[in-house]
Design a protein that fits this description.
The protein is of the alpha+beta class. 23% of the residues lie in helices and 22% in strands.
Amino acid sequence: MSLDPRLLEILACPDDKGPLYYFDDEQALYNPRLKRRYDIRDGIPVMLIDEATTVDEAEHDRLMARVESESLPPTFER
């Protein structure tokens, strides 16, 4: 289940208020500045800092390589 594009336009990290990257196939939103991943469960983004996952350097590199190779846009531009 993909997120509504209108919702994606307003989603921001609850911690630093910055844009996120959306990985539809992984059902996740990612903040590369904090290396924090937010899961999407049953079509609902879980935007709770306490439930986010901090990724290691290898996972960060993998996600950012996907952003680059797939030209994934951030949820919004600053």
